[in-house]
Amino acid sequence: MKLPPKPPTWTEIVAKLPQDVRDLVFDDVSRASSQDRYLHWEDQRYRPTPEGHTPESWWATLKIGRLAKWRPIPLHDPNGRPFQLGIPDAVAERLHVIDRGLGLALDLPTAVTAPASRDQYVISALVQESITSSQLEGAVTTRQVAKELLRTGRPPRDNSERMILNNYATMQRIRSLRTGPLTPDTVMELHALVTAGTLDKSDAAGRFRRSDENVRVEDMEGTVFHEPPPAAELADRMQAMCAFANASTPDYFIHPVVRAIVLHFWLAYDHPFVDGNGRTARALFYWSMLHAGYTLFEFISISQILLRAPMRYARAFLHTESDGNDLTYFILHQTEVIEEAVQALHDYVTRKTAELHTAEQCLRGLQGLNHRQQALLSHALQHAGARYLIAGHQRSHGVSFQTARNDLFDLVERGLLITKKEGRFNAFYTPGDLGTKLSHLATSASDVPPPAEADPTLPLNFTLRTRHD
To answer: 72 - beta bridge partners?
Structure first.
């Protein structure tokens, strides 16, 4: 990856322009503001320009319009220059979409958000985020193996698996920390969790990098993309970051999603740790979103979207640093990622709801099955030959081992699962005629009078988020 070219400053451009073009630059600022796609000079210089403009003069026009909307935040580069942010129309529109998509407008079935069953969906989202966040940092394993690792709870076999397990533990910890303020100790705790057992220096987990630890961001060829601030400044910078995260600064309103995005950038920019900065930055982003009340963000994995185009993620950082500390580039990228993740959640709900209706035809009318057993049978109907373990069922639903065991052996007694011993474990399989048996049981149940009071633990109008391995 090449470093983006540093854009020329608008003052340098204007000083060299003929008077008539200089007048055109200032006359066209209003028009530029309405047409600005907020491209970096790296891309903007190749775009067609309005009549009378060169790429340079049009860039100066765009920059003047952008500067008028900039507002500083308490993050500074090593030279003391503040980072700035703007909210162009594209960002404002995406923030509106995100607010609606993560608010009441998202028509999730009641059983997804009900306390009795939401954990299975949250756990599946945590698994997805843990895997993809680790893969962004170089973890190498298949998704199937990673899911098996997290669901069975077996010890990790290598550093990649340890990274995934650490991310999972960190994401779970964030759920319990979201109501409190962010403190330097909290950041240290999250970093220690996310890097445990994965660092070359075992003592580097949960502490700042030292001045003798030369940390910088570079590629395999030695091209330096970022040199973080000196280690001596990190304690003060961390305090400032936490004050920003807790909305104590600045003295004007910042949209909560924008604040979470800036927090993500801030930690990555300061690079306060020897390693694990990217994973910690994304963890803080999740904390900030949940802390701000976006509770449905528990169901979303942003790293899954970032992993599809990691170069765009990296260039969003570089564009911000190379163009006068303009955070708008990073905000534009991240709001696009969040919007895509929210849409993916909507699509998932729609798809799984349709799949559920098919499974309901067989499950309708059955008495005595709880929502966990219903989820397993719905999964089994769509995955012939699937194998189930007590530990996997336990982790999928966040229940005790005994509760999971009771669920599975109850289904064996009903003839809906077959069990056989595999070493020290009981494995469970679905019979080949599961659909027929469910249909028969449902028909038989229809002849039995319904109970006097419906059991609230037996919802059938829920969507599936969990895969049972």
So the answer is: 84
Which pTM was predicted?
0.78
What fold is seen in the domain 73-346?
A: Fic-like fold (1.10.3290)
Q: Rounded distance, CA 335 to CA 353, Å?
A: 27
For domain 364-469, give the fold: Arc Repressor Mutant, subunit A (1.10.10)
Map residue 306 onto helix, strand or coil.
helix
Return the axis-axis angle of helices 118-136 and 159-177, rounded to nearest 10°: 130
Sequence-distant (6+) residues with CB within 8 A of 135 are 303, 307
CA distances, 227 to each of 100, 222, 224, 310, 438 (Å): 38, 13, 7, 20, 62
Query: Where do you find CATH 1.10.10.10 in the chain?
Result: 364-469
Structural contact between residues 62 and 214, judged by C-beta atoms closer than 8 angstroms: no
Q: Is the dihedral of CA 35, 39, 45, 46 positive or negative?
A: negative
* Rg, Å, the chain Cα set: 26
Distance of CA 330 to the CA centre of its chain: 15
> What confidence tens digit (pLDDT) does each residue in 290-349 have?
999 998 888 788 888 888 889 999 999 999 999 999 999 999 999 999 999 888 887 877
Q: How far is 18 from 21, CA to CA, in rounded Å?
A: 5
